[in-house]
Design brief:
This protein is α+β, with helices and mostly antiparallel strands and 666 residues long. It folds into five domains: 5-104, Rossmann fold; 134-202, Dna Ligase, domain 1; 208-448, ATP-grasp fold, B domain (D-amino Acid Aminotransferase, Chain A, domain 1), CATH 3.30.470.20; 457-580, Glycoprotein, Type 4 Pilin (2-Layer Sandwich), CATH 3.30.700; 591-662, RNA polymerase II/Efflux pump adaptor protein, barrel-sandwich hybrid domain (OB fold (Dihydrolipoamide Acetyltransferase, E2P), Beta Barrel), CATH 2.40.50. 26% of the residues lie in helices and 33% in strands. Helix 12 (396-408) runs antiparallel to helix 13.
Length: 666
């Protein structure tokens, strides 16, 4: 084995991933954890777990000296940095080596060559790696810039050399527009950044994002393992990753692979890395950057190659040689990431305890990489990813279908999630026909985040039947544990003395309440919803599906039901209903929320305006909290008296935490 003991200087699913590979290879693992991660899965999976500081990354996972000290004290031979935190920190890589340990990644020198975007572009151009045509010279004479723009060609981007945040940028489509756009850009750059120097760069319309997985060993060999396409993006964040790219021709694929290898050799690259390219509609491609670490989407490559890239990292770091034969690729793989975030609220990150977590079973074609289980807390301090869902099939249409089925099996309760967004996205025509570009979602997000229709009476009827069957099963299970399991009085078979049974169910979907009247006899049901009457018979469970004959038509719906909720999936989208007490007065609905003030998102309490016992009117300011670099004022939902304060100034609170309680209305 390459090492006997490895310390993983990261957290979450990547730490769990490395631990599992090491265990398979017989390598002892050491995890590090922050105060927030004391009970995290990666800490529990490792052979030894070492605390390294406070919950905030700067107090723990970014403390390179503390991590190295933990490695030395625990007898580790190497440090695996995962991705994020210190994984691309050249100083940390050098410090690990200086301490006599092996850094499982590229050298600090290789990282530094990629540290300057302008320098990296020049280095790649010298290595004959295609770069976006442009001008970065110091001569800022207007006539010189005009000549350079005409040489580069249009459309063209003028960019403030010292800018950021979208300021000092202009897209120019013809030579005649250039002079005016240049002056406007220079004025804005001077006002925003104090300097008016600009860069010129060819603007690639409707680009695609395609990256090549490379590996280098300590013997000078660099190879590539094929591409991943990541063109489905929102605000430059990847949403769908797949391999192979449905866009590339065999000729372009070969040319990009050769360019990626040349890029790796140009910086003496060792270990796993990713060369990212921007690709134009005509197949022209240009170097963007090298990610000097393992990527989040590496399982896509693993699924089509059958390789364990973490194992390769370990072996390369130990000095072993990469195979010289080409790597075979088979089938199509797609990855999506399940996040605790609210798409309807601008993808606001979520946090809190995962009350329910149901993910599809892992098979040859379905893989789950996760660092949490049901009951764990999604912390406000770190990335809110819950799991990566990866599928593999013989071709792309089958992979998309398998991904849809796998997503339909997912259930996350507690923090809100992006599951429904992903389900809608993978069925969007631009994804199905593989024509999406990197800016499409930002231009047309509303086409994916459409307001769902109200549930049909057929769906409500099915949800009601699911509740009845679940309750029947619960009664039966309880009876089996009782003193007289064979008593006929323990049966829940809808039989009633004197006639058919009658029941009222109240289901809430989003903010809408639905009353469902059921009359049942001998496993046959009449269901009244408003003026609509349905007949149901032959209802039963078939695996995790609800099977029923509704108005003579046999249906099968994925279903998950418990005492508080029922979730149905019709093959296209999910429907989630809350079960409410049947005879709850309408005036009581939502009363609990009217008695409580909750945190709308994770943040810090900066100011209290009230004390226990204070009388408040509806709309009065109660508290001010700081979240996402802005202040939020929390106001009284109704008139009342402050019963208790659940947080004080300076406290850090999670989303949906109860902050203030009002005395209940009598």
């Amino acid at each position: 084995m390459p090492f006997s003991t490895v310390l993983i200087s990261n957290r979450g699913e990547i730490a769990c991933r490395v631990i599992r590979t090491c265990r398979r290879l017989g390598i002892r693992t050491i995890a590090v954890y922050s105060d927030a991660d004391a009970d995290a899965q990666h800490a529990r999976l490792a052979d030894l777990a070492v605390p390294i500081g406070g919950s905030a990354p700067r107090d723990s996972y970014l403390r390179g000296d503390v991590i190295i000290a933990a490695a030395l004290a625990s007898g580790a031979q190497a440090i695996h940095p995962g991705y994020g935190f210190l994984s691309e920190n050249a100083d940390f890589a050098d410090a690990v080596t200086a301490a006599g340990l092996v850094f499982i990644g590229p050298s600090g020198a290789s990282m530094r060559k990629m540290g300057s975007k302008a320098g990296a572009k020049d280095l790649m151009a010298a290595a004959n790696v295609p770069v976006v045509p442009g001008y970065t010279g110091e001569d800022q004479d207007a006539a010189r810039l005009q000549r350079e723009a005409d040489r580069i060609g249009y459309p063209l981007m003028i960019k403030a050399a010292h800018g950021g945040g979208g300021k000092g940028m202009r897209i120019v489509r013809t030579s005649s527009e250039f002079a005016a756009a240049l002056q406007s850009c220079q004025r804005e750059a001077a006002n925003a950044f104090g300097r008016d120097r600009v860069l010129l760069e060819r603007y690639v319309e409707t680009p695609r994002h395609i990256e090549i997985q490379i590996f280098g060993d300590r013997h000078g060999q660099v190879i590539h393992l094929g591409e991943r396409e990541c063109s489905a993006q929102r605000r430059y964040q990847k949403v769908i990753e797949e391999s192979p790219s449905p866009f590339l021709t065999s000729e372009t694929r070969a040319a990009m692979g050769a360019a990626a290898v040349a890029a790796g050799k140009a910086i003496d690259y060792v270990n796993a890395g990713t060369v990212e390219f921007i690709v134009g509609p005509a197949g022209d491609f240009y170097f963007m950057e090298i990610n000097t670490r393992l990527q989040v989407e590496h399982p896509v490559t693993e699924m089509v190659t059958g390789l364990d890239l973490v194992e390769w990292q370990l072996r390369v770091a130990a000095g072993q040689t990469l195979p010289r034969a080409s790597v075979a690729h088979e089938g199509h793989a797609i990855e999506v990431r399940l996040y605790a975030e609210d798409p309807d609220a601008g993808f606001l990150p979520g946090s809190g305890r995962i009350q329910r977590l149901r993910l599809p079973a892992q098979t040859d074609g379905v893989r789950i990489d996760s660092g949490v289980i049901e009951g764990d807390v999604v912390s406000v301090f770190y990335d809110p990813m819950i799991a990566k869902l990866i599928v593999h099939a013989a071709d792309r249409p089958q992979a998309l279908a398998r991904l849809g089925d796998a997503l339909a099996e997912c259930r996350i309760e507690g923090p809100k999630s992006n599951i429904e967004f992903l389900e809608a996205l993978i069925r969007h025509p631009k994804v199905i026909d593989a024509s999406i570009d990197t800016g499409y979602l930002d231009r047309h997000l509303d086409q994916v985040l459409q307001t769902p229709p109200a549930p049909s009476s057929e769906l409500l009827a099915a949800a009601a039947i699911a509740c009845v069957l679940a309750d029947r099963d619960a009664v039966h299970a309880e009876a089996l544990d009782g003193a007289e399991p064979d008593s006929p009085w323990t049966l829940a078979d809808s039989w009633r003395l004197g006639g058919a049974g009658h029941r009222l169910l109240v289901l809430r979907e989003r903010e809408q309440h639905h009353e469902v009247q059921l009359r049942s006899s001998q496993a046959q049901y009449q269901i009244q919803i408003g003026e609509t009457l349905h007949e149901v018979r032959d209802a039963c469970w078939v695996a995790n599906r609800l099977s029923l004959r509704l108005d003579g038509q046999l249906l099968a719906l994925r279903c998950q039901v418990d005492t508080t909720h029922v979730q149905l999936h019709d093959g296209q989208r999910r429907w989630r209903f809350e079960r409410l007490p049947a005879f709850q007065f309408e005036g009581q609905l939502g009363r609990e929320d009217s008695d409580r003030v909750k945190a709308p998102m994770p943040g810090r309490i900066v100011l209290l305006r009230v004390q226990v016992g204070d009388s408040v009117a509806e709309g009065d300011e109660l508290m001010v909290m700081e979240a996402m670099k802005m202040e939020l004022t929390l106001r009284a939902p109704r008139a009342g008296v402050v019963e208790s304060l659940q947080a004080q100034a300076g406290d850090f609170v999670e989303a949906d935490a109860v902050l203030i309680k009002l005395e209940p209305v009598t």
